[in-house]
């Protein structure tokens, strides 16, 4: 049942609430086209006018894979509220948002994508089409190398962190490691 939802029939569009039947994942269209070419992803909404593409995922499912989406946040956004213009099932060409599938996709399309598979496919596609992915900071959040500074961890090693996290960790851990050495 999780993946059973389909858009209204026909070639029109409907403005539908996000967070009711689906949440929404938005990425640059170049990243989406890369996915269509290189992976067997679920149906995607292409919007050449805005340069974005969108997948619909079951409500709340992005939270099941928090780091997978957190490390994409510079380029990929998850929306769990608001409204979105959703193409109807037969809207498979422009103008405006329309459904696209990987070349050679067989059978009836699935309009809700698996959030975990999607994040897994989006990581290499984002790396190729947008740029480097961030590393995981000690705080658990994503930090990009171009904004990171080295900080001292609990074991005395240096890692790249958010500047604020580095300042805090270094102040705490340098004192702790130093204390241990003296003991
Ligand atoms: Zn941090």
Describe the protein's topology:
Elements: E1 13-17, E2 23-28, H1 29-38, E3 44-47, E4 52-57, H2 66-70, E5 77-79, E6 83-87, E7 98-100, H3 115-129, E8 135-136, E9 142-143, E10 149-152, E11 158-161, H4 163-182
Antiparallel strand pairs: 1-6, 2-4, 2-5, 3-4, 3-7, 8-9, 10-11
Helix pairs in contact: 1-3
The chain binds zinc ion.
Overview of the structural elements:
It contains four helices and eleven strands, in the order E-E-H-E-E-H-E-E-E-H-E-E-E-E-H. The protein has 183 residues and is an alpha+beta fold. The chain has two domains: 13-131, no CATH class; 142-182, no CATH class. The chain has a five-stranded antiparallel beta sheet. Helix 1 crosses helix 3 (115-129). The longest helix has 20 residues, at 163-182. The protein is elongated. It starts with 12 loop residues before the first strand and ends with a helix.
């Amino acid at each position: 049942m999780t993946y059973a939802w389909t858009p209204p029939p026909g070639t029109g569009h409907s403005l539908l609430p996000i967070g009711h039947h689906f949440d929404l994942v938005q990425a640059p269209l170049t990243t989406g086209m890369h996915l269509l070419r290189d992976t067997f992803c679920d149906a995607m909404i292409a919007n050449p006018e805005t340069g974005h593409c969108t997948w619909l995922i079951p409500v709340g499912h992005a939270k099941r894979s928090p780091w997978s989406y957190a490390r994409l946040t510079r380029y990929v956004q998850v929306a769990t509220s608001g409204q979105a213009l959703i193409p109807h099932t037969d809207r498979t060409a422009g103008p405006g948002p329309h459904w696209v599938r990987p070349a050679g996709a067989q059978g009836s399309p699935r309009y809700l994508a698996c959030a975990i598979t999607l994040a897994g496919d989006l990581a290499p596609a984002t790396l190729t089409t947008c740029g480097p992915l961030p590393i995981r900071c000690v705080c658990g959040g994503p930090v990009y190398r171009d904004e990171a500074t080295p900080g001292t961890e609990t074991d005395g090693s240096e890692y790249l962190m958010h500047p604020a996290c580095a300042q805090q960790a270094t102040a705490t851990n340098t004192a702790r490691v130093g204390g241990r050495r003296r003991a």
